[in-house]
């Protein structure tokens, strides 16, 4: 932990083009795997043509629809066509809405991104503050009050938090709109719902990292030199605890972007989560594929970006040494 | 909380849930599926402590029966995912080479799709039912166990007792079962405990979206979904099943934390089985 890294070794930065290229290659491979598995799994899941034709349609009608959608071609042919188009940014047309899947995604993405970013900001504010306070005031009343809240937050499933918030603030107090999107006020309840779980996770990681750092020698040295708590936290502890906190926050962000499914359904939020449920129910293959591809891409990119950020925050990581 | 009550209180709570699930037919005041439109959407009262739903069914009875679904699905999901993940992870770690590479790449692929999105997708492919929810959760979560089994096996592979066993001519399967598994198991059990609460939440979430256990079978998620529909008039539908779920998940999480603290800090892989089973004398592990 406290080993001095010789200056020479800074040459071994993981943030070199070669390292980045290697990681990006791995990421692409993972995405390719995801797309392939999803493609074949969806085709096993049922016939979308049956859901598209009106009630009482003849077998010939269904066959015509299948033909139009290209579902009569061999699986291999469908797969290679899909991959060829995907490389050119064409993810196919929605079976249900007859529009490019990418258009549908572009329409929904801003809502989900809005929600995810708001939730992440809230959860970082709350999580880091609570984690720091409970670590610094270990064994005092602050810890005894806040830790049960964190534990409770972790056991609250999103849909129950959401329902309770609606019950209290929309049905009971009539302060806030419960569903849909009109204006920034409607962002409040869904983002608090989403933030609750992430905030608890971030608080626990922050606390654990803080406790670990507080036991280090440099903290005692700084104290002895007369550093106050504020200076200690902002100057010394913040940087040293940033990596685990950032890792969890990145994972949470990726999950928020791709997985706000339940929260969006509760609040009728017109984002990607709702689109996912609708498209899966309608067997709208191209749209589902596009969503999964997007969500995984976000996940992979966020993780990659976090890895690269480590080196910026903590030079010991960049030097390939240290134990952070 | 001191060391002992940290374990016993959550254990008692989980035990009560298990009893409730097993004896639901004896304990529940009413048939959970008895439709009676004359008493629809009654608020909580002496005869219906948690009120009734839109079809006049007693919510308390439905919550009790819902415990069965939750515990059954979560336990089955943890066992199936755990066994599959540990087996694949151990073989990948032991054999290494192309087999290990392939298994661990698949782990990467599964882990690079957001969990819940993948769960929705898998249930949509398989069709909603109790068994399929278990299969789905197992497919989504086995990589968690595979990762820890893989790394623990890699670390154990080079240790003296394994090398000694190899030298005496023991077969790979024997060494894995006799020498490596005891190292992997405590870690896997901790992961499983921490996962259990998550599985309860996932099952409820899938049922909430209509992708889980199908009506009329009572499940906490599906009652909550009714609760959303009638949220303006029937607050009890949206609160009690959630409360039941919240207390269970909280207790299980506390158990998982306690179990993890016995293995941690940071040196999980080197902790031996005996130290996991027999608690060290110190009151709290050094931070």
UniProtKB/TrEMBL annotation, chain A:
Record's superkingdom?
Bacteria
A Pfam family for this UniProt protein?
BPD_transp_1
Q: Which residues cross the membrane?
A: 20-42, 115-136, 148-173, 185-203, 241-267, 287-306
State the compartments where it is located.
Cell membrane
Q: Where is the signal peptide?
A: none
Main subcellular location of this protein, as a coarse class: membrane
Show the InterPro entries listed in the entry: BPD_transp_1_N, MetI-like, MetI-like_sf
Stated family:
Belongs to the binding-protein-dependent transport system permease family.
Protein name in the entry = ABC transporter permease
Tell me the organism: Actinoallomurus oryzae
TrEMBL record, chain B:
Reading the lineage from the top rank, the first entry is Bacteria
Q: Where in the cell is it found?
A: Cell membrane
Task: List the Pfam families.
Answer: BPD_transp_1
PROSITE patterns in UniProt: ABC_TM1
Q: Does the keyword Transmembrane apply?
A: yes
Keywords recorded for this protein, A-Z: Cell membrane, Membrane, Transmembrane, Transmembrane helix, Transport
Q: Which InterPro entries match?
A: BP-dependent_transpt_permease, MetI-like, MetI-like_sf
Q: Where are the transmembrane segments?
A: 7-27, 69-94, 115-140, 184-202, 234-255
Major subcellular site:
membrane
Please report the stretch or stretches of sequence annotated as the ABC transmembrane type-1 domain.
Answer: 67-256
Checking SUPFAM superfamilies in the record gives: MetI-like
Statement: the UniProt record of this protein carries the keyword Hydrolase: no
Q: How does it sit in the membrane?
A: Multi-pass membrane protein
Family as reported in the entry's similarity comment? Belongs to the binding-protein-dependent transport system permease family.
State the PANTHER family in the record: D,D-DIPEPTIDE TRANSPORT SYSTEM PERMEASE PROTEIN DDPC-RELATED, OLIGOPEPTIDE TRANSPORT SYSTEM PERMEASE PROTEIN APPC
The name under which this protein is listed is ABC transporter permease
Q: What organism is recorded for this protein?
A: Actinoallomurus oryzae
Q: What is the lineage of its organism?
A: Bacteria, Bacillati, Actinomycetota, Actinomycetes, Streptosporangiales
């Amino acid at each position: 932990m406290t080993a001095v890294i010789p200056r020479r070794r800074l040459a071994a930065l993981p943030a070199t083009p070669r390292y980045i290229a290697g990681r990006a290659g791995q990421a692409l491979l993972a995405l390719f795997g995801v797309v392939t598995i999803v493609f074949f799994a969806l085709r096993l899941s049922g016939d979308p043509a049956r859901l598209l034709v009106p009630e009482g349609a003849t077998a010939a009608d269904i066959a015509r629809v299948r033909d139009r959608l290209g579902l009569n071609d061999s699986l291999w042919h469908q797969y290679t066509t899909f991959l060829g188009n995907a490389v050119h940014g064409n993810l196919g047309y929605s079976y249900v809405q007859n529009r490019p899947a990418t258009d549908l995604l572009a329409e929904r993405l801003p809502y989900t991104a809005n929600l995810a970013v708001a939730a992440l900001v809230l959860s970082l504010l709350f999580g880091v503050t609570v984690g720091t306070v409970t670590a610094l005031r270990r064994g005092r009343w602050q810890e005894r009050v806040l830790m049960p809240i964190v534990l409770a937050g972790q056991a609250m499933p999103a849909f129950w938090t959401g329902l309770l918030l609606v019950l209290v603030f929309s049905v009971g107090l009539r302060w806030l709109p419960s569903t849909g999107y009109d204006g920034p006020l409607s962002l409040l309840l869904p983002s608090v719902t989403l933030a609750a779980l992430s905030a608890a996770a971030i608080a626990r990681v922050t606390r654990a990292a803080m406790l670990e750092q507080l036991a280090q020698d440099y903290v005692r040295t700084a104290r002895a030199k007369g550093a106050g708590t504020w200076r200690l936290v902002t100057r010394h502890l913040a940087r040293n605890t940033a990596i685990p906190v950032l890792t969890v926050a990145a994972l949470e962000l990726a999950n928020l972007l791709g997985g706000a499914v339940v929260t969006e359904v509760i609040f009728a939020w017109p984002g990607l989560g709702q689109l996912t449920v609708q498209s899966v129910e309608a067997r709208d293959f191209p749209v589902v594929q596009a969503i999964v591809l997007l969500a995984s891409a976000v996940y992979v990119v966020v993780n990659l970006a976090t890895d690269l950020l480590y080196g910026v925050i903590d030079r010991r990581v960049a030097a390939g040494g240290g134990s952070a | 909380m001191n060391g002992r009550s940290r374990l016993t209180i959550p254990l008692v709570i989980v035990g009560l849930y298990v009893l409730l699930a097993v004896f639901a037919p004896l304990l529940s005041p009413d048939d959970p599926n008895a439709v009676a439109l004359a008493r629809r959407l009654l608020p909580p009262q002496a005869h219906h402590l948690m009120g009734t739903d839109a079809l006049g069914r007693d919510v308390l009875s439905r919550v009790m029966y819902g415990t069965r679904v939750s515990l059954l699905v979560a336990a089955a999901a943890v066992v199936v995912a755990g066994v599959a993940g540990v087996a694949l992870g151990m073989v990948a770690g032991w054999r290494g080479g192309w087999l290990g590479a392939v298994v661990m790449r698949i782990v990467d692929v599964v882990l690079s799709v957001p969990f819940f999105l993948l769960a929705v997708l898998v249930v949509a492919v398989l069709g909603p039912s109790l068994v399929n929810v278990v299969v789905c959760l197992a497919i989504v979560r086995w990589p968690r166990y595979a990762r820890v089994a893989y790394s623990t096996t890699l670390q154990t592979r080079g240790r003296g007792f394994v090398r000694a066993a190899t030298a005496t001519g023991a077969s790979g399967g024997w060494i894995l079962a006799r020498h490596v598994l005891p190292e992997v198991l405590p870690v896997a059990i901790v992961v499983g405990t921490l996962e259990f609460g998550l599985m309860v939440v996932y099952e409820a979430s899938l049922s909430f979206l209509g992708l889980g256990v199908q009506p009329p079978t009572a499940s906490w998620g599906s009652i909550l979904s009714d609760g959303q529909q009638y949220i303006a008039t029937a607050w009890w539908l949206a609160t009690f099943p959630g409360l039941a779920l919240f207390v269970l998940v909280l207790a299980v999480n506390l158990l998982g934390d306690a179990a993890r603290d016995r293995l941690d800090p940071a040196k999980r892989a080197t902790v031996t089985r005996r130290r996991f089973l027999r608690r060290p004398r110190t009151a709290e592990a050094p931070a």
